[in-house]
């Protein structure tokens, strides 16, 4: 399994690099900004512009399959969380005949449809990018923490060169996250605060796993910790803005 995953990532990386090279050779990269169909733009630069409609149709079919798989995976994640009590029971209900989380799929499908229909494509792309990169950062942090706290835990795959590989993964993701606009960071912050509030108000009080381990529904995320998690990013952003203002004023004042 690890060899298959890593091998497929390497192959996809090479293909995407070559694909991007061809696209930027056909059209200037600035023409692809905020475009939902960059391949069609590139094809219109060739004598085969009639292929543009066919390519758009193929892209829609490809996107549909990806969204379908993501939706199936997300409903299963919510199903597992709901079974533990972190989410309301509606996400754990299954269809009597098919045994699938039908209500969860309908709710998520409705949310995704509304989100895709009313949010600009550029915003959707940026939010997807920063959310995915943050997930990778959390995975790398999890590898570091688990290797420190549970070094002898059984593992189907053992990450090599720890802590070098996780640290490089965290730094790489953070560099790409920093390149995103501040509005995207603000949306990420609001989304994280919403998730923390759901966990603080509902999840930690109903977790069956925590109850089985401790014998009581203890409060792992206290109000003080929640406040620190919410306020600390605002403080860091304020310090960053002060530093940026100081550096700009220093340059304008001729101090450098």
Instruction: Indicate the proportion of strand residues.
Output: under 5%
Mean pLDDT: 84
Give the end-to-end Cα distance, rounded to a whole number of Å.
Answer: 55 Å
Structure summary, number of beta strands: 0
Which structural class best describes the helix and strand composition? mainly alpha
Assembly state: single chain
Helix count equals 9
Low-confidence stretches: none
In short:
With 256 residues, the chain is mainly α. 73% of the residues lie in helices and 0% in strands.
Which structural traits does this protein have?
globular, 0% strand, mainly alpha, 256 residues
How is this structure best described in words?
There is one protein chain. This protein has 256 residues and is mostly helical. The protein has nine helices and no strands. The protein has helices spanning 2-26, 38-43, 51-84, 102-118, 121-149, 164-178, 182-206, 208-214, 223-252. Helix 3 packs across helix 4 (102-118), helix 5 (121-149) packs across helix 7 (182-206) and helix 7 (182-206) packs antiparallel against helix 9 (223-252). The longest helix has 34 residues, at 51-84. The radius of gyration is 23 Å and the shape is globular. The model has no long low-confidence stretch (mean pLDDT 84).
């Amino acid at each position: 399994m690890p060899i298959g995953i890593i091998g497929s990532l390497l192959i996809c990386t090479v293909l995407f690099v070559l694909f991007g090279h061809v696209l930027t050779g056909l059209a200037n990269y600035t023409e692809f900004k905020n475009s939902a169909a960059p391949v069609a733009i590139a094809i219109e630069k060739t004598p085969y512009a009639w292929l543009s409609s066919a390519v758009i149709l193929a892209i829609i079919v490809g996107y549909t399959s990806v969204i379908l798989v993501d939706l199936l995976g997300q409903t299963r994640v919510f199903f597992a969380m709901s079974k533990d009590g972190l989410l309301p029971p509606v996400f754990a209900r299954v269809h009597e005949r098919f045994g699938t989380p039908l209500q969860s799929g309908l709710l998520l499908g409705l949310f995704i449809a509304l989100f895709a229909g009313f949010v600009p494509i550029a915003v959707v792309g940026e939010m997807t990018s920063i959310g995915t990169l943050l997930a990778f950062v959390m995975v790398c942090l999890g590898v570091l923490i688990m290797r420190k706290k549970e070094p002898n835990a059984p593992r189907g795959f053992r990450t090599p060169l720890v802590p070098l590989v996780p640290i490089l993964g965290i730094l790489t993701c953070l560099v790409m996250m920093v390149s995103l606009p501040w509005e995207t960071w603000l949306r990420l912050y609001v989304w994280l605060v919403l998730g923390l509030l759901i966990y603080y108000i509902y999840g930690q009080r109903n977790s069956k796993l925590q109850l089985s381990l401790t014998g009581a529904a203890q409060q792992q995320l206290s109000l003080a910790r929640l406040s620190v998690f919410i306020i600390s990013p605002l403080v860091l952003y304020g310090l960053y803005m002060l530093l940026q203002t100081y550096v700009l004023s220093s340059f304008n004042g001729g101090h450098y």
